[in-house]
């Protein structure tokens, strides 16, 4: 067998693998974009819901003295609803966070495969894309963490106030606010 | 905000992620096919080269007594060439084996991402494809291992014969065949 005949299919295999690896980076980039968009979107919705609950809570605390018990109960119902909504949005963004993490891993592996196949440009493009979305997601995460910290601070403030009020007026012990606060830490102690 | 307005973009995100994950499985399958083809192709070329060397060696051993030293040297040169070619093809298939292993990992991860995104059909298709190529590669590997085993057996047989001949004819010590055999184990002791 002449040398030319054997080296030609070998070259062609290399070319086909290189092209296929570049195509994988294209598709992983689409997945990375979609999951990033979904994660940022859902994280933003969640942050909004945290602020909604925070503002309802501040309003409730400031009006506590001026409301009768049926008014308190009505505001309390609205707060429960806001809290359920916040939890629902939290679950949603955690789900998208998992998809996003998988897309990042896939993209990293595709970048490596492209690099090994000689598709350097495709490899570098994916790596830059990964860096970009990691920064975007980090920024959005920080906004959510800030909202969570504000809500946690407002809730401990409120607990202190309720304890003081309960001392002055023991009949109010077990008010909706104190029972709301009791199961709060579980929701805010998660580590990201 | 009405419920319908919020759930629509969420559904759409899910759909886009599912579609993107399915596209990733398409492209990883192309890469998997290309690397499998290249690996099987190069492994087959390597196996052929092992048989070429084996047959040259058998011929050399059987004609050893009938050849003069210049004839021996000529056959010896051909065997060196065959051995260099075999090593070259071995390096090539090891390179494709690495590409193939990366393509399998990528495909597995893509199958998982597709499954998590709800693209069950795409996920199952990739998993079946992975199984299929693993069987194909395994079969081709076994053919190569068998050739290597035959070559190794023929070489130890030859070493025995050379030792016996050297005892009868000490001037022949360090013949091309014994020096050929010396560095053989290194090439055949690799574990797959």
How much beta of chain A, percentage-wise? under 5%
State the helix count of chain A.
5
Order of helices and strands of chain A: HHHHH
* Rg of chain A, Å, rounded: 27 Å
- The gross shape of chain A turns out to be rod-shaped
Number of strands of chain A: 0
Oligomer: homodimer
- SS-derived structural category of chain A: mainly alpha
Residue runs with pLDDT of under 50 for 5 or more positions of chain A: 1-7, 172-192
Relative helix content of chain A: over 70%
Q: Describe the main β-sheet of chain A briefly.
A: none
Most extensive interface, residues per chain? Answer: A-B, 38 and 38 residues
Whole-Å distance between the termini of chain A? 61 Å
Mean pLDDT, all residues of chain A: 84
Description:
The structure is a homodimer of 192-residue chains. In chain A, 88% of the residues lie in helices and 0% in strands. Chain A has helices at 3-63, 69-116, 120-168, 176-182, 185-188. The longest helix of chain A is centred in the N-terminal third of the chain and has 61 residues, at 3-63. The model of chain A is unreliable at 1-7 and 172-192 (pLDDT under 50). The interface between A and B is large, with 38 and 38 residues.
């Amino acid at each position: 067998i002449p040398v030319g005949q054997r080296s030609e299919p070998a070259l062609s295999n290399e070319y086909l693998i290189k092209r296929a690896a570049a195509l994988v980076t294209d598709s992983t980039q689409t997945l990375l974009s979609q999951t990033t968009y979904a994660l940022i979107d859902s994280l933003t919705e969640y942050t909004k819901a945290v602020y909604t609950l925070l503002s309802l809570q501040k309003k409730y605390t400031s009006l506590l003295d001026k409301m009768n018990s049926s008014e308190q109960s009505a505001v309390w119902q609205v707060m429960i609803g806001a809290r359920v909504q916040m939890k629902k949005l939290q679950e949603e963004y955690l789900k998208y966070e998992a998809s996003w993490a998988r897309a990042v891993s896939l993209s990293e592996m595709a970048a490596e495969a492209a690099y090994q196949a000689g598709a350097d440009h495709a490899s570098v493009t994916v790596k830059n894309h990964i860096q970009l979305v990691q920064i975007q997601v980090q920024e959005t995460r920080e906004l959510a963490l800030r909202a969570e910290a504000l809500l946690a601070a407002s809730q401990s403030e409120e607990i202190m106030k309720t304890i003081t009020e309960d001392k002055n007026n023991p009949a109010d012990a077990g008010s909706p606010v104190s029972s709301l606060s009791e199961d709060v830490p579980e929701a805010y102690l998660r580590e990201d």
